[in-house]
Amino acid sequence: MRNKNIFKLFGVTLIFTILFTSCSDNAPISPVDTQNPNTEYIQTVASSTKKPSDITIPEITKPDDNDVRNILNSVSVSNKNSFVKSPVEFFVNKSNAVCSLNITFENYIDIYTLQHCIVDVNISEGSYRFSDNGVNADGTINLTAQPDLIITDESGTSEKYAIQLEREVLDLPVVNIFLDGGANQSSIDRNEYSKMTFYMDCSGTAEFESTPIVTGGIRGRGHSTWNWEKKPYRIKLDQKASLLGLDKNKDWILLANYADKSLIRNCVAYDMGRELGSFVWDPSQYPVDLFVNGEYQGVYTLGEQREIAKSRIDIYESDTEADRGYLLELGGASDEQLENKYGYFHTNLGLANFVAFADPKPEKITAEQQQFIIDYVNKAENAIVSGVGYEDYIDVKSFCDWIIIHELTCNLDSCFRRSCYMTKDKGGKLEMGPIWDFDLAFGNFFVDNPYYNTWFTIGSDPPKKDETENTAKTADTVETAETAEKEPYITTNWCNYLMYNGSFRNTIRERWFEVRDRLVQRAVKSIDYYSGKVKKSQAENFRVWNILGINVGYESYSTAGIADYDGQIQYLKNFIYNRAKWIDNNI
After folding, report:
1. φ, ψ at 197 (rounded to 5°)
2. Cβ atoms of 313 and 455 closer than 8 Å
3. Phi/psi-derived region of residue 344, left when phi > 0, alpha when psi is between -120 and 50, beta in every other case
4. What pLDDT does residue 4 have?
5. By three-state DSSP, how is residue 168 classified?
6. 430: how many CB neighbours lie within 10 A of its CB?
C-alpha cells in the first residue's frame, strides 16, 4: 500500500495523501497500481506550489461504510514544544480509494520538527499504532521515516496507512536550538549563557554534513545590535565540534544581519579578505536558517568567533610572558569597561582610543603584559606620526590590504571607531586584522557620505602639511580621550598619517592596482554565490521580519528604499563597481 505525502515547506502546506486497503491482520497488502492515471494526478499535486485553497481534489466525499470502515475521525499534529497545528481535514476519493490528510502549517518547518512530531489520531473504536521505524524513544513520531499508521477495529480488521513524506528543501543549513527547561527565547541574556541543545541539519545543501546533537550555552552578543528586534547570539558548545566543515572549536556566533537586507555582506567581505591573503586569520561565515524552540527566526550567518587559538588566530599564547601574542580591538571598550574604567587604554598621542584587550582578556592579562603591549603600540604610533622607522613596528602589507578592503567596502568603523583589530605575535610586528563586522558597510550606514566621494579610513582634521613633510603631531594638538568620548566617529588616526606619507602612499597605490581586478571579481562572484543560496530562504526571512522598504537599525537611506531582495543584491554589486572606479581616480 502506498501513501503520498506532500510537503510544501515555505508556503507552508503539508498534504498527506494516503492510499489504503482494508485487510485482516494476516492478509497481504495490495500494491498501488502504478499504471492507474490517478497516480499521475497525485504526482501532479506533489509538484504543485499552489496553496490548498487553489487545489481542486476530484470526486471528494466524506467516507462511508461502503468504501472503508468509518472509524478514523480526526488527526492532529504538533511537536514536543506544544506548537499545536490545525486539525487535519479528512477526505476520501472514491475513484481511487485515496484517503487525504491535509495539514496546513503557518510557518516554515524544519526537518528536526518533522522528526519529532506528536500525532494524535482520534478513532471511534478499536486501536491504532505507528510502525516501529517511526517511533522515537520519547514517543514522538518521525514523519520523515515514512512510518505506517495501523488502525485496527474491534473485529480485528486492520487498515494500514503508509506515510511517505515529500518536501521541498530550502538551500541553507538549518540550525536548531532548544533551550533547556522549557525556557523561552526572550530569556536569553546578553551576558550569561543559557543552557541549550544544538543540532544542524545540512540535508538541503550538498556542501556540508549535518552536525549531531550537542549541548552547550547561548547568550546575546553585539553592542547596539543587541537592542534590535532580531537578536544576534554567541554559542559555546560543551565539546569542540566542526560546524560547516570548519576546524573544531567550542565558540561560534550567529549574526542576525538585521539592517543588512542582502543578508550576506559579512560573508562577501570575508571572502574578499581571503583573496588578499595577508591577514593573520580570515574568519568564515555562512548563511543558515535558524530555529529556536522550533520557531523560525530567519536567515542568520553562522561563523567563527575571533580568538587566539590553533584553529583561529594562531599566535603564541602565554599566561605569564610579556612578549606573547596579543589581539587588540581599536575602540573596543565595552559599556561595562567604560563605566568601571578598566580593560582598555588610549595612546599617548590620542590617535587610537579605547584600545581594548581582546585576547588575553582584561581579567587574565597581567600588569607586565599590559605595559609591554601599551609601550609597543605607543612606539608604533610615534614612528607613524614621524614618518620615520614605522616599518620596524608595523607589517606594512597587512596595513595596506586592511585599508584597501575597508575603503572598497566603505566601512565607516574603519576610522578606528570599533571592530578594528590588530595582532602582535611573539617577537613580531603589529599587523592589522582580522577584518570584522561589515553588515553596515558597502553603502549601508546612515552617516555615510551619500556620494561615497571621500576616504573612510582617514578621519577628520587631517594633518596640515606638505605630502613629503613629516611633522610630528604634538600633545597640544591631538584629540584628548575626553574629546574622543564626545565625538567618537571620524577622528584623526594612524591612517591619516600613513596615507599622507609619500612612501606608504606609493606602496598602497601599487598594491591597489595589483589586486583591484581580482578583488572586485571575487566580491561579485561571492555576491552571486551567497545570494543564490539565500534566494529561497530570504522570502521566509522577510515574511517573519517584514522590513523591506522600511528603514531599520543604522541602515542607509539608499538601501532602506529598496523594497525587494533582487534590488538589494543589485545595489551591492553596483556599489562595488562604482567604489572601485572612485578609488582608481583618487588613490
Report:
1. -115, 135
2. no
3. beta
4. 34
5. coil
6. 23
Angle at CA 436, nearest 5°, toward 431 and 440?
Answer: 135
Total-model pTM:
0.80
Q: What is the 3-state secondary structure (H, E, C) of 100-120?
A: EEEEECCCCCCHHHHCCEEEE
Closest CA to 103 of 168, 9, 7, 15: 15
Inter-residue contact 399 to 383 (CB < 8 Å): no
- Cα separation, 522 vs 567, in Å, equals 20
Taking the C-alpha atoms of residue 234 and residue 251, their distance in angstroms, rounded to an integer, is 7
- ∠117-118-121 over CA atoms, to 5°? 130
DSSP 205-252: -SS-PPEEEEEEEEEE--SGGGGSSS--EEEEEEEEE-STTPPPEEEE
Averaged in consecutive runs of 10 residues, what is the pLDDT profile of the chain (587 residues)? Answer: 35 41 35 32 28 38 46 75 54 52 63 83 90 91 83 83 68 94 90 95 90 95 88 97 96 97 98 97 96 91 96 96 97 90 95 96 97 98 97 98 97 90 98 96 91 89 43 35 42 92 97 98 98 95 95 93 97 98 96
Cα torsion angle, 335, 340, 345, 348, sign: positive
Residues 576, 268 contacting (CB under 8 angstroms): no
The alpha carbon of residue 458 and the mean position of all alpha carbons in its chain are separated, in whole angstroms, by 30
What one-letter code names the amino acid at 99? C
What is the per-residue pLDDT for 29? 28
Measured between alpha carbons, how far is residue 475 from residues 259, 350, 480 in Å? 39, 8, 9
> If you count DSSP H runs as helices and E runs as strands, how many of each does the chain have, helices first?
11, 24
For the record, the C-alpha cell of 582 comes out as: 572612485
Residue 229 exposed, middle or buried by CB count within 10 Å (0-12, 13-18, 19+): exposed
Domain range annotation of the chain: 3-167, 174-256+281-304, 326-437+453-586
Q: How many CB atoms lie within 10 A of CB 32?
A: 20
Residue 360 phi/psi, 5-degree rounding, is: -65, 150
Rounded distance, CA 184 to CA 451, Å? 44
Longest dimension (CA), the chain: 102
User: Which residues share a beta bridge with 16?
Assistant: 5, 101
Residue the block writes with cell 609591554: 372
Crossing angle (nearest 10°) for helices 396-409 and 502-544 = 50
What's the grid cell of residue 491?
577622528
Strand partners, 331: none
CB 473 within 8 A of CB 352: no
What integer pLDDT is reported at residue 155 of this predicted model?
A: 86
Distance (Å, whole) CA 235 – CA 141? 29
The distance from CA 20 to its chain's CA centroid, rounded to whole angstroms, is: 44
**Interatomic CA distance for residues 65 and 85, integer angstroms:** 29
Q: Three-state SS for 547?
A: coil
* Phi/psi at 540 (5° precision): -70, -40
The pLDDT value recorded for residue 99 is: 55
DSSP string, 312-338: SB-----SS-SSS-EEEEET---HHHH
Least Cα distance to 131 among 122, 141, 116, 123 occurs for: 141
